[in-house]
Specification:
This protein is of the alpha+beta class. It has a domain at 8-95 and 135-161: Electron Transport, Fmn-binding Protein, Chain A (Pnp Oxidase, Chain A), CATH 2.30.110. It has helices spanning 14-20, 60-67, 101-111, 113-124, 127-130, 154-165, and strands spanning 26-31, 37-42, 44-46, 51-55, 70-76, 84-96, 133-146. β5 and β6 form a beta hairpin. α3 (101-111) packs across α4 (113-124). The protein starts with 13 loop residues before the first helix and ends in a 10-residue tail after the last helix. The model has no long low-confidence stretch (mean pLDDT 90).
């Protein structure tokens, strides 16, 4: 029986592992200080336990995350069959006086070693000017996985189950 949506054991699924280690940015969703939702693309690194991201200490999302650290993260493909990893958790923040190492590695994975290293060096030079860099860590508390082959959105799965449970339509008599 497949692992149910919400179970963190879904992180062990090959589709989830492909997305966590792939060349796609994550999308970090959080609640702004006025209560409205926000989503930003962000480089993320999976360390086997947590999704790790880097940002600047005065980035707008830091202010919001201090008020409400609950987040949702999505990593998804752009072509069919669509693969979608959905995570929910609580962001923990740590101020560093150097570039976040996992952020550097995520940049290399997303942009390639050479370009990722150049970007990390350029942006890393801003760390002293901007007052450090913040490491965001999210340990998944809820995990969802869609592969549009064996796992579909819940409403589609309910519809398919209902269609299979319904008796076939009666044949109309021919005359």
């Amino acid at each position: 029986m497949p692992t149910k949506q919400g179970d963190v054991a879904l992180l062990d699924d090959p589709v989830a592992q492909e997305l966590l280690r792939g060349k796609l940015p994550a999308r970090l969703a959080y609640t702004w200080t006025d209560g409205s939702p926000r989503v930003v693309p962000i480089a993320a690194y999976w360390d086997g336990q947590e999704l790790v991201m880097g940002t600047w200490p005065h980035a707008p999302k830091i202010k919001a995350l201090r008020r409400d650290p609950r987040v949702a993260v999505t990593i998804d493909t752009q072509a069919p069959p669509f693969h979608v990893l959905l995570l929910r958790g609580t962001a923990r923040m740590e101020l560093l006086d150097e570039p976040v190492p996992e952020w550097v590695e995520a940049g290399k994975r997303l942009a390639g070693d050479e370009l990722g290293t150049q970007m990390a060096q350029q942006l890393g030079s801003l760390v002293p000017v901007l007052g450090g860099m913040v490491r965001l860590r999210v340990r998944p508390e809820w995990v969802g996985l869609l592969d549009f082959e064996t796992r579909f959105p819940s409403e589609v799965e309910r519809g398919v189950a209902a269609a299979h449970a319904a008796p076939p339509p009666a044949a109309e008599p021919r005359g």
